[in-house]
Amino acid sequence: MLDYLKQLFIEGEEIMLGQRQGIVVWLYSLKQAKMLRRFGNVHYVSKRLKYVVLYCDLVETEELIEKINSYSFVKKVEPSYKPFLKTEFENSKPDKAKEYDYKMGI
Question: Domains along the chain?
Answer without folding.
Answer: 2-104 (3.30.70.920)
